[in-house]
Amino acid sequence: MSIKKAAAVALVAALGVTSLAACGTDDVRGAAGKTDRPAPKTVTLVSHDSFNASKEVLADFTKQTGFTVKVLKSGDAGEAVNKEILTKGSPQGDVFFGVDNTLLSRALDNGIFVPYEAKGLDRVPATYQLDKEHRVTPIDSGDICVNYDKKYFADKKLAPPVTFDDLAKPAYKNLLVVENPELSSPGLGFLLGTAAKYGDEGWQDYWKKLKANGVKTVDSWELAYNQEFSGSAGGKQAKGDRPLVVSYASSPPVEVLYGEPQPKVAPTGVSTGTCFRQVEFAGLLNGAKNPEGGKALIDFLISKKFQEDMPLQMFVNPVAKDAALPELFTKHGVVIDKPETMTPQKIAEKRDPWIQQWSSLVLK
């Protein structure tokens, strides 16, 4: 989820404490040349670039289990999954975090995970548990939605769009910027949302309407949100002129948190009828060198402590029922009651053909 990159810079500081490589047993020796104490125990978490956690929380995991977490960032979500597929059976680490429901079937079909039913999984609603074999454990959720620039619409005395249908209306011509679904996770989520809304055939007619209404396509969320979108801090600096962008329901709290000075009200809003639910998972990697540590880490990722740390670290929602949201989310965030959804099986069947059809419709 690209929105999380805004906070990922804090990971560098955390890694100074948490990314300790395992030392050899001959590193600490007594006078007789024998090992005085065992080497530190390390569990390696492979993830996309946007993973973040507070160093205090990861230190608590070490205190509880004796395992030190080493975080290995491996590109964006799609790139990271593909790397694990290529190294199946001889993985880069013990646990992979960050495969979402749009890519889940690819990971499962390639056998990169082994089953493990996490302790505390009963605290996670069944709607998030998409793999009955427990090869992956749900960790967080978020909603890909169109965001709007409140000031633009107030100045124009124009009501912001609420639904997918609204986006194709003449009143919103030349206002929307989206991401290429072949290159961008939120772009793919938005495409899947339109397919869920309008059906296998109807989504193409819908995109024809969007194209006729002046939709703009860029390659990444970074470009769309921080360059083209007039409502974000980055977009204002770049003189972006599109007041509608595909982003996340959690984007408004981010704008408040990083605002200088912090605004009392979020400058951006969410078109709540344009959302697609994204769920991220973690799994024990096939061939993990430290499966015991990997299982303990997965248990910890759905613990109340980690779940409550996530929102302000990665701007996602916890999946555990007992985890509370921070005030920033409850005050400035939006709860999406009825997002569009799609089964991983259907995504697996339709994803690539739909992307090709989308490219023919929108980019040519």
Set down the secondary structure blueprint.
Blueprint: H1 10-18, E1 41-47, H2 55-65, E2 67-73, H3 77-86, E3 95-100, H4 104-109, E4 113-114, E5 137-149, H5 150-155, H6 164-167, E6 176-179, H7 185-212, E7 216-218, H8 221-228, H9 233-237, E8 244-248, H10 251-257, E9 268-285, H11 291-301, H12 304-314, E10 317-318, H13 327-332, H14 344-362
Parallel strand pairs: 1-2, 1-3, 6-7, 6-8
Antiparallel strand pairs: 3-9, 4-9, 5-8, 5-9, 5-10
Helix pairs in contact: 7-14
Principal-axis shape equals globular
First CA to last CA: what distance?
A: 27 Å
Classify the beta-strand content into a percent band.
Answer: 15-25%
Helical element count? 14
The description of the largest β-sheet is: 10 strands, mixed
| Helix proportion | 25-40%
Q: What's the mean pLDDT score?
A: 88
* Radius of gyration (Å): 22 Å
Would you tell me the structural class of the helices and strands?
Answer: alpha/beta
Keywords:
alpha/beta, 10 strands
Can you give a write-up of this model?
This protein is of the alpha/beta class and about 375 residues long. Helices cover about 40% and strands about 20% of the residues. It has helices at about 10-20, 55-65, 75-85, 105-110, 150-155, 165, 185-210, 220-230, 235, 250-255, 290-300, 305-315, 325-330, 345-360; strands spanning about 40-45, 65-75, 95-100, 115, 135-150, 175-180, 215-220, 245-250, 270-285, 315-320. Strands 1, 2, 3, 4, 5, 6, 7, 8, 9 and 10 form a ten-stranded mixed β-sheet that branches. Helix 7 links the parallel strand 6 (about 175-180) and strand 7. The chain is globular and about 60 Å long.
